[in-house]
Amino acid sequence: MKLKIEGIFPPIATPFADGRVAHDRLRENLERWNKTRLAGYAVFGSNGESVFLDQEEKLALVDTVKENLPQDKLLIAGTGCESTEATVKLTNLAAERGADAALVVTPHYYKGNMDNAALRKHYLRIADESDVPILIYNVPKFTGISVVPELVASLAEHSNIIGIKDSSGNIAQVGEMIATTPPPPTFHVLAGSAGHLLAALGLGASGGILALANVAPDECCKIFEDFRSGRYAEARELQLKLLAANKAVTAQFGVSGLKAALDMVGYFGGDPRSPLLPLGENQRNELREILKGAGLI
Amino acid sequence: MKLKIEGIFPPIATPFADGRVAHDRLRENLERWNKTRLAGYAVFGSNGESVFLDQEEKLALVDTVKENLPQDKLLIAGTGCESTEATVKLTNLAAERGADAALVVTPHYYKGNMDNAALRKHYLRIADESDVPILIYNVPKFTGISVVPELVASLAEHSNIIGIKDSSGNIAQVGEMIATTPPPPTFHVLAGSAGHLLAALGLGASGGILALANVAPDECCKIFEDFRSGRYAEARELQLKLLAANKAVTAQFGVSGLKAALDMVGYFGGDPRSPLLPLGENQRNELREILKGAGLI
Amino acid sequence: MKLKIEGIFPPIATPFADGRVAHDRLRENLERWNKTRLAGYAVFGSNGESVFLDQEEKLALVDTVKENLPQDKLLIAGTGCESTEATVKLTNLAAERGADAALVVTPHYYKGNMDNAALRKHYLRIADESDVPILIYNVPKFTGISVVPELVASLAEHSNIIGIKDSSGNIAQVGEMIATTPPPPTFHVLAGSAGHLLAALGLGASGGILALANVAPDECCKIFEDFRSGRYAEARELQLKLLAANKAVTAQFGVSGLKAALDMVGYFGGDPRSPLLPLGENQRNELREILKGAGLI
Amino acid sequence: MKLKIEGIFPPIATPFADGRVAHDRLRENLERWNKTRLAGYAVFGSNGESVFLDQEEKLALVDTVKENLPQDKLLIAGTGCESTEATVKLTNLAAERGADAALVVTPHYYKGNMDNAALRKHYLRIADESDVPILIYNVPKFTGISVVPELVASLAEHSNIIGIKDSSGNIAQVGEMIATTPPPPTFHVLAGSAGHLLAALGLGASGGILALANVAPDECCKIFEDFRSGRYAEARELQLKLLAANKAVTAQFGVSGLKAALDMVGYFGGDPRSPLLPLGENQRNELREILKGAGLI
């Protein structure tokens, strides 16, 4: 049976207290998110401060989310590491603890060497050896490299590679990926940012893994549902209304902004780990105004 | 009375023969384009090899297009120069010869100094002194700089700045521009590439100035009309089908590819000026296959 | 007889008054520069606001400099245009008016197409048809492209291509160019910024075409002479002392900063053409402190 | 007593066999390197495939190098992690096992947020809490960010931050760092690539941490010694001769090239970990010719 990755997933923020993962706070957040139409959760993605977590912390996150996961929601784990072997290992540990799929960021430290041949071999070996299906994660703003549609089309032939989260925002490229891969549930192209959610849906994306869905789960789901139900004008209106808020919790203020926004809308956000700096007071005020403008507070 | 910039405009290729502008060939091309639903033409934009033309050649192009322009079509001239004064001068000369509006690329040689203050002053002075309305032209792949939505919103307050052609392909940014500027005919946000035409229309763009519309005018117009008429599935299907062809005549093979494609679909393309190199035989074969795949030949 | 390009050349700023080139002010500047050991002048390079000048203005600059040029100094003209043909034409007009050599910036608007084959053909044709020798001008910060050493080595085989001004600041690349081209006077590698003058000389560069030499001609010449005479410690000390001033008149404040600095050290600088903005008062104060720190005022 | 970081250090390659660190092979390499005038070793830097090693493997590398370290050589460990806390922890574990200093790469996943304030706080806290002195590691080609001289000057005031390895190749910036920090042994500016070794020494650098020193330790040391002894012409000649080989084992072929080169010159190199691909036969042949040209085989 094929896994269907459809709808809206937040790459959830990882709450910290006294320097440790605050599982109780996470449970409270999940309790609220569980009441929405979110299709599931992505744990320790870029917005979950994956690069600041050790393996034990990551697996404990899988446990906590799994324990609080309604049956109709999926759990995706951000298991991409720089090395192929470490990625396989983490993926299978996460799978054992209950992850339904793995989101695998492109390795990128040695950018100059990450050509199509290297990336292809990396993903194929992971797909071969993983106990759960794989989603490619393309996020040039963090990695400095971008996966080309030709490579995606080729990787989509592997039965265990079932999709891509594209955060490049290059909508023509998203379109090319959709045009050259099989339709869901064989392969899913997912928007990687709420900024291009409607545009991606309009070309055939099956959903999105969106930082903004942490703080605006209902609104992100509504865009998806309005679009699917042919309420195009409503979808467009809401998409335009959310753009500034989306920029605020991504490019403008980053993970620190996402966490501050969570606090402002009633979830637990807290501070990011160092070296990320919490927002200053002026930034918080600016963020609050933006969230008000979007109708989120 | 306000100028309405709506629908599809090709930034037309400039035909050369024996090193000079081939006005007879241009007339033949116009004769064919005139039979389509194109909303008008942009002369000497990036795809018209503007940087290879001298002022006399540019004005002669305005003359030829104007002489062959049906009453219901608009003539837009790519008058942006590096200096503010030269831009004003060329804009008004083009206006005198019949241009309806001017497309003004961001000055970019001194990229490091082209901050919002410099660009703002540049565009405001041009808008103040121009005899025709101004469209901002944002094309980072050629200029190395990108106009931010905040600046666009501010410039949109000037009554003689009536739109922007955005070729960045950053669809979230296109959305922000639409969300923060007045609707047409006060301000028009136009897709700058067929690769994001449907996505831009979906957010409220009023049309596009598209290299691909040189070789596929009917198809580009059909996407616009299908979208406007609510035939969304047809629009999407055609958009996806054209992506590879669009990439071929822009990022992949550039102006040389656009001209070769014109030749292949029955217009006159010819060779670009040096230092652009005409396509080699292998490239031509690859291009031909792509155009066939898109149903253009 | 081969032209020897050795020592320090300022790419001179173009003085404006009431929007026109102020030839009288230029003559005054030249009178002062002529008393230094500068090896000559480069007119209408990047620092001469070449992109804001029309052809007539450029040729008038050649005239004025030529009329005021001591016999032992060289006159280099920045004749690179986007098109090959325009470059040849301007080069030969400048040569006719007395330019000794031409500095030809890489064409760059169509960056994606300016591969080695296109650049090679461009430079070879210019070299073939030019009445004076050609210097390649590599300035990635303005052009967005960089000439690779392999191409330089290949172009160096043409007898009319006698050197390169490298402003990339990539000193390993400068070294590779020196290692793979014939020594002066067959081929000259010239530092394109005072920031890497000593480093380039240390690897075998024959001099530099340096914005800073506008305002600190004696100091730039002294680094060259100290190095050539084996006074290495003095050269190093002066090089380090000038770094902040060099950055101020290039990357930090650009041409506007260069012109403000000229005013501060007793030359005529004046304002740049629009869209470049003159420095604000705070910037001027910061610049003044930097020049003081470098011992230039 | 202050630690003096002077001379040439290779960031040593990590040998693997059957997927595990091959400590016996490392011992053989160290035996040969120990006979040279290398000033010490950097373990698990970029060239040591740090991002592919887990903590246990890293500490085992410290052990093996420490056991085979002559008294007059230093051991530097590449302990930079994305999180501040993880960096402190790894640094102190490495110090406990015998590392003399730590090389701390800039955190970089969240590039957009790594402004001077964030980087400053990160380094100061590490410096405060580390049991050994800290060297900043600036390597934009891998990290996508660059440390500015102003930040370096500010960090140099901390007594436990004793230098920087600069791999940017921006020689003017290296000069600025030297001009604005105290001289060794308070603060050391080190070339991060053999491509700018001589240039950096000429401005006052105290040495280099150089990938090329893995395969050409004697030659790199000779440049340093020739320069220090005033044999400038010899230093220059050797510097130019090594440029192509240096490029081959860095930008051109990366870590895979470095390891292949080690095999070719008689050390053990072996294959890199996946996703890095070993060189193909054509690449090996090209590399061999380059090493021959540099007189290394």
Record keyword descriptors for this entry.
alpha/beta; homotetramer; two-stranded antiparallel ribbon; 12 helices; 297 residues
Tell me briefly what this model is:
The structure is a homotetramer of 297-residue chains. The first copy, chain A, is an alpha/beta fold and 297 residues long. Chain A is 46% helix and 13% strand.
Helices and strands, with pairings:
The structure is a homotetramer of 297-residue chains.
Chain A: E1 7-9, E2 16-17, E3 20-21, H1 23-33, E4 40-43, H2 55-67, E5 74-77, H3 84-96, E6 101-105, H4 116-129, E7 134-138, H5 140-143, H6 149-155, E8 161-166, H7 171-179, E9 188-191, H8 197-203, E10 207-209, H9 217-228, H10 232-252, H11 254-265, H12 281-293
Parallel strand pairs in A: 1-10, 4-5, 5-6, 6-7, 7-8, 8-9, 9-10
Antiparallel strand pairs in A: 2-3
Helix pairs in contact in A: 3-4, 6-7, 8-9, 9-10, 10-11, 10-12, 11-12
